[in-house]
Structure formats: C-alpha cells, structure tokens
Amino acid sequence: MIYQRIRDLREDKDMTQKQLATILNCSQRIYSNYERGDVDIPTEILIKLADFHNVSIDYLLNRTSNPTIQK
Q1: pLDDT at 24
Q2: CATH number assigned to the domain comprising residue 15
Q3: Cys-Cys with 21: which of 5, 10, 31, 32 at CB 3.0–4.6 Å?
C-alpha cells in the first residue's frame, strides 16, 4: 500500500512525521493520517513526496517496485 511505502521512505531517512510534515507544509496530524490511510493523499503532496524522496510517483503508488525515475 502507498501508506506503508511513504512510511518506509520516511523511516529510511530517520525522520519523524513532524519533520516531514514541516517540509510538506502540513501538520503532523494530517501527515499521520496519510501514513495510516485515513485520508487520501492530495496530488500536490504526492508530487512533493516523490520529489523529496527522489522516487517516481508510480513507485509511491505501488505501480512499480523500481523507485528510479525514468527519463
């Protein structure tokens, strides 16, 4: 699931939810909701997450297991 993937990426960088929420310009509570799957993640946040983690949106959406951005 996308929710597990964004959590794994955050944890791989040893970041807290609050730290990443600050980068995404949202509250820790909203970001926590994203990771739990309680709310849909807006497209603009998906783009920011992909850019920050340097992965493709397809990777975030579990459409591929390859995180590399295709050029």
Answers
A1: 97
A2: 1.10.260.40
A3: 31
